[in-house]
Amino acid sequence: MRVGIFGGTFNPPHFAHLILAEIIREQAELDRIRWIPTHTPPHKTAETPARHRLAMTRLAIAGNDAFEVSEIELERGGPSYTVDTLEALQRAEPDVAFSLLIGGDSLADFMTWRRPDEIVRRAPLIVYRRPGVTASPEAATRFADRIRYADAPAIDLSSQTIRERVQNGQSIRYLVPDSVRAYITRHGLYR
Q1: How confident is the model at residue 89 (pLDDT cuts 50, 70, 90)?
Q2: Distance, CA of 30 to CA of 97 (rounded, Å)
Q3: What is the rounded CA–CA span in Å between residue 113 and residue 27?
Q4: How far apart are CA 8 and CA 128, in angstroms?
């Protein structure tokens, strides 16, 4: 079994997340993409409670049998460190070959992550490029044999943009799945 780990705040999950995950799943010949919402992201704040981000992630991936959600970081609590998650997953599922999906923005600051050498030893990186972002030369060189770049469209859409649009009373139709948009409205998120 080959599983791609797609971690993030997913605050909210949007169509760029879905498009990239599906393209990477196909290109890397992964059996599954496991979406893992963070409990407490160590590199940024997620003011939206984890229960909402988890619910929106479940809604976003509904209908794709190759996508699944894991609550591993939410159950563990505290800061969500990728190395700890990979260690726990590999201990629980020793026969699964994991890869880690990250954006070019994450590769740009990858050397600041907790134990980056151990992360790439545990799981090769599949990197999708982000518009206007340059990868860390140190990480790109140091881990070149453990990095694969996805041939995916550069979609300039972020969760922050969606939150700002909601705050400004602008439409987010066609930026997130309708079920996620309805959830945001029903729970008054990002206002």
Answers
A1: very high
A2: 9
A3: 26
A4: 14
Q: Enter the tokens of residue 104.
A: 């070019």
92 neighbors 12 (Cβ within 8 angstroms): no
pLDDT digits (tens, 9 = 90+) for 96-132: 999 999 988 888 889 999 999 999 999 999 999 877 7
Instruction: Output the pLDDT for position 46.
Output: 61
As a whole number of angstroms, the distance between CA 82 and CA 8 comes to 10
Helices (H), the chain: 15-27, 50-61, 72-76, 82-92, 104-108, 116-122, 137-142, 159-167, 178-187
What six digits make up the tokens of 163? Answer: 């939150």
Closest CA to 61 of 81, 36, 44, 43: 36
> pTM here?
0.94
**Which position has the token pair 């954006």?**
103
Q: What is the number of helices (H) and of strands (E) in the chain?
A: 9, 6
Length of the chain: 191
The answer for residues whose C-beta is within 8 angstroms of residue 117's C-beta and 6 or more apart is: none
For tokens 């066609």, the residue is 174
